[in-house]
Amino acid sequence: MQKEKRVYNRIKAFLALKRVKSKALAEQLDVSEQTVSKWCTNYSQPSIPELYAIAEFLKTDVCELLEPMARS
What are the phi and psi torsion angles at 32 (to 5°)? Predict the structure, then answer.
């Protein structure tokens, strides 16, 4: 049985919405494009300071970048 993958952030969606390339975000935050790719696929997550920097770069609120938790 395969474990369901959780979606924690919406970085990929906001990059598309703002028409910003992941390469531009990587350069702004001084991280690799692979790191941004991992964030976009929810393979890994940015740190809290990085999340705030991403929100500032994308001109949005940090809360908008986070996926709401499903209630059981």
Answer: -75, 160
